[in-house]
Amino acid sequence: MRNLIDILDFSTAEIDSLIEVAGDIIENPEKYRDVCHGKILGTLFFEPSTRTRLSFTSAMMSLGGQVLGFDNAASSSTAKGETVQDTIRMVSAYSDIIAMRHPKEGAPIAASRVATVPVINAGDGGHYHPTQTLTDLITIKRKSGRFDNLTVGICGDLKYGRTVHSLIAAMSRYENVKFVLIAPEELKLPDYVKEEFLGDGKCEYVETESLEDAIPSLDILYMTRIQAERFQDKDEYERLKDSYILELSKLKFAKPTLSILHPLPRVNEISVDVDDDPRAHYFEQAALGRYIRMALILMLLDTHGIDDKRTVGKEDATLECTNPHCLSLTERGIKKLFNNGKCVYCDQAGKKK
Ligand code: NCD
Asked: Smallest Cα–Cα separation from 140: which of 269, 273, 13, 263?
């Protein structure tokens, strides 16, 4: 059985193949209309969502399958104190594949360890969001025609933006990709992401606070929302929320081939006057999310019997994860698993208790 927890669970060849299948679905939707007849997708959203949940629902319906689930932790047994792992055991019995979003980092790995059906991470806290990355990648492929030789600017909340972390993981695997990381000091990319994918010459990158200075060099500009819900200090959010606003005037020195992307929802960071610019692709990006998720559901339903690498890690009762947002700190009965000193659930360092 395969899961999609982290975008690196898929090779670049598998990503190419998903993009190809999504392209075929766009061209020949009738061919796929009934291929998931009798299959059920469980959508478990413990956190708000519009695009991700609805595009998963639309994807399964367009394949002839059915969908069950909840869009709010308060309407599930979580409100009665049920653990994530118990909820997943149940939903495994009621569905053939699960897409889940949870505010705690590492929740999808915890889920995948007890699930008897494939689990898709639809966003875990400020950690990862691999299906948004698939959406980003299909858009990049269709707009720029390639993944290599690109200068990718990522602007906004690089600290809490889970889509940012997964996009960097994915794009750092291609030749001659250069990242321009545009963020205020307080919202810079976390060290664990930097060390894993960029540091020690793994991939070229620069950090800057100036969007204006960065724009002329970029092939891709990936704008992101400041993640209000992850701030402990609401005053800090108020101070940082309008750090970057992309207006049409700022695009004067941008390349004519620039692609402007955003995982959406946007708040203030892209002014509506940019929407009509031919380089603004974010609404099309959201639309492509349905087709790439159709390809993903087909792939995961078809890969029973393949070993999943999520069996790594050893239980170590002497260690505790240092990430306050990790599910392993709050989930009753969860095994504390570490691999080379790092928490298996959220990738952050463990410390001696
Ligand atoms: C993103 C998310 O949930 O992380 N939204 C999405 O899935 N398209 C981005 C965001 O909420 O800012």
From this structure: 263
The tokens 């019995």 sit on which residue? 93
- Report whether 59 contacts 21 (CB < 8 A): no
CA 224 to ligand 1 center in whole angstroms? 9
CATH number of 7-129+288-301: 3.40.50.1370
Give the span between the Cα atoms of 57 and 45, in whole angstroms: 12
> Which of 3.60.15.10, 2.30.30.100, 2.40.50.100, 3.40.50.1370 would CATH assign to domain 130-287?
3.40.50.1370
Q: Judge if the beta carbon of residue 243 lies within 6 A of ligand 1.
A: no
Tracing tokens 């009753």 back to the chain, one arrives at: 332
Q: Residues 34-55: pLDDT tens digits?
A: 999 999 999 999 999 999 999 9
Domain boundaries for CATH 3.40.50.1370 within the chain: 7-129+288-301, 130-287
The response to whether residue 263 sits with its C-beta less than 6 Å from ligand 1 reads yes
pTM: 0.96
Distance (Å) from CA 263 to ligand 1 centroid = 6
Q: How far is the C-alpha of 249 from the C-alpha of 281, rounded, in Å? A: 18
What number is the average pLDDT over the span 134-160? Answer: 98
Atom of ligand 1 nearest to the CA of 52: 7
- With a 6 A CB cut-off, is 230 part of the ligand 1 pocket? no
Reported as a pLDDT band with limits 50, 70 and 90, residue 229 is: very high
pLDDT tens-digit series, residues 151-175: 999 999 999 999 999 999 999 999 9
Average pLDDT of the residues in 225-253:
96
